[in-house]
Design goal:
alpha+beta, single chain
Length: 285
């Protein structure tokens, strides 16, 4: 599936999380480990594509999610965990991302991170942009430099002094784009093609797990099946079809709630004919 997702932090989220600005380099202040990589040979030595092996029930911290699902965090990743990467390759990645973001980037950092699905260490980017800016993480990850060096995740951090993780966009092992909210509230506009037409849908994502439909241009359930993007709270992201099909079956769902909204201007609604498989009466009316 080809498509585009635009993310924007909501005003409420910004007001709740902003403090005195981005401040000085927190990593340098706290003594966070960093390494300088100047060439591709050094890069390949760090990111050698090998899985970090762990013994069952050993060397792990167990974290229970609100849904009851358990996830595991490796305790001992001395070679990778929390390592900040500087040097020439970081500058190449930074330059590409900076050129493709409208507005100011207030902070950018490249880190080594263990992929939770595969166990393989990968490079990941964290950025802070101007609060009013919209951002297409998917397009940034598709940049030639990010592709070359295997950058598959970008986290948009909140514009506070701690640079708290906000929303992460990543590409999973199957090539699916996944957006996971850690902190804050965001609006996302999705565009894709299905059944010979362009589909446009605006949703909001919240760190409490709620996914709300704001507007769409006549999107039906069959259209959602053609969109493979997954969204939701960290470790709990689902496809749009899964989310809204669940809401259709159970309006009082604890995980998903469709908020009342007005259709986008391009939607024609007469009220005399029920459209095929609409997402929800509260979303399309």
């Amino acid at each position: 599936m080809t498509g585009r997702e635009i993310i924007k932090q909501t005003a409420n989220s910004i007001e709740q999380n902003i403090t005195s600005g981005t401040g000085p380099d927190k990593g340098a202040q706290t003594g966070k480990r960093q390494i300088s990589i100047e060439n591709e040979e050094e890069w390949k030595k760090l990111f050698d594509g090998k899985k970090i092996e762990t013994e069952p029930n050993r060397n792990k911290d167990v974290h229970t999610l609100p849904s009851g699902k358990k996830t595991y965090i490796i305790k001992d990743e001395k070679k990778y965990r929390g390592v900040r990467i500087t040097g020439r390759i970081f500058e190449e990645i930074k330059d590409e991302i900076s050129k493709n973001v409208e507005g100011d980037i207030n902070f950018i950092e490249l880190k080594a991170s263990r992929n939770q699905e595969t166990g393989i260490p990968e490079p990941a980017v964290r950025i802070v942009v101007s609060a009013k800016e919209e951002l297409s993480i998917g397009e940034l990850l598709n940049g030639p430099v990010c592709q070359k060096f295997g950058v598959k995740a970008i986290t948009l951090c909140l514009p506070n002094e701690e640079r708290t993780r906000g929303i992460r966009g990543r590409v999973d092992k199957d090539g699916t784009r996944v957006y996971e909210v850690v902190n804050g509230s965001y609006e996302m506009t999705l565009k894709w093609h299905a059944q010979g037409k362009e589909c446009v849908m605006k949703i909001n994502l919240d760190d409490n797990g709620l996914v709300g439909c704001i507007s769409h241009n006549g999107v039906n359930m069959d259209d959602l099946k053609a969109n493979t993007v997954k969204v939701g709270r960290q470790y709990e992201a689902k496809s749009l079809y899964e989310i809204f099909a669940s809401e259709q079956k159970q309006e009082s769902s604890e995980a998903v709630k469709i908020l009342p909204a007005t259709p986008s201007p391009s939607t024609s609604v007469t009220g005399t004919k029920e459209p095929q498989q609409h997402l929800s009466n509260t979303c399309h009316r």
